Amino acid sequence: MTPLSGGWENGPWTAKPTLRCWTSSPTAACPSWPTTSSSTAPPVIPPLASTLALLIFLTSLLAYGLSRSAAEAARQRHILEVYFSPAIARQIMSSGTDIMEGRGVDLSVLFSDIAGFTAMSDHMDPAEVQRFLGEYFEEMTACVFRHGGAVDKFMGDGLMAFFGYPEAPGMDRAENARRSALDAVGCAVDMQAAVRCLNARWTSQGRPAIAIRIGVNTGNCIVGDMGSASRREFTLLGRNVNLAQRLEASASEGGILLGARTAALAQDSFALEPVRSLSVKGFDHEVEVRAVRAGGE
């Protein structure tokens, strides 16, 4: 019996391996195997084929770029529809402003909150809470849009809005800040009036009345598209945003509290209380504030 072997010629570890085949006959020859030569030239791609391949690659690259551009445009359009009034959205679309890019802007920020709503909601069923807040936010959003503002977010029963972005064409930084302060304070006065109307309707229906607190501050803020790769949102950041929220928390029920710069810009158009100092959490010194007098204008 002929053994199966694939041994080494001239002794182990000293020579090139020799291929041996196992066949039914000890004398059968192995088939010849094709060999390659280092001098063999690579296959030649016809010029037409290489041109077509290049065109396909470029077309695919262009299609990918267009799909990404279309997706980004759709995302920006969605943001415009969610945050801005139709008039402001049209202004942004026509101007080509890139609202995604982070930048510093002198504008005004407004925070509002329903006083005691957490305790009140404990005595309401979930569907009633949802309906109640839906009616409330519908009116508050309408106030923001009427004054040229944008709704940044809803936080439980709280609302954050901003005014002065995007800047009106041809308006300088100082004038933009002034206009934003007037719009924000006007919106705050409008919101308090809208709550009085809502309360009249709700009490006639046997539902509870509410009181809201509002804080407004004007200053430089970072505005743009923020977040991670999986979740992003258009929002504002900065010390002046934080101060607006602190002012809202310090306002009286049914009141509107303004930061010093907002008050200075709005004092000729609205009736304000005298200046007072306020200790604010997160700030190492007292800040000057003024409240809008009852009745507003």
What's the gist of this structure?
The chain is an alpha+beta fold and 297 residues long. The chain contains 7 helices and 8 strands; from the N terminus they run ααβααββαββαβαββ. It folds into 2 domains: 51-83; 98-291, Nucleotide cyclase, GGDEF domain (Alpha-Beta Plaits).
In words, what does this structure look like?
This protein starts with 46 loop residues before the first helix and ends in a 6-residue tail after the last strand. Mean pLDDT is 82; it is low at 4-16 and 18-24. Strands 1, 2, 3, 4, 5, 6, 7 and 8 form an eight-stranded mixed beta sheet that branches. The radius of gyration is 36 Å and the shape is elongated. It is 42% helix and 20% strand. Helix 4 runs antiparallel to helix 5 (173-204) and helix 5 packs across helix 7. The chain has 297 residues and is α+β, with helices and mostly antiparallel strands. It folds into two domains: 51-83; 98-291, Nucleotide cyclase, GGDEF domain (Alpha-Beta Plaits, 2-Layer Sandwich). A hairpin with an 8-residue loop joins strand 7 and strand 8 (287-291).
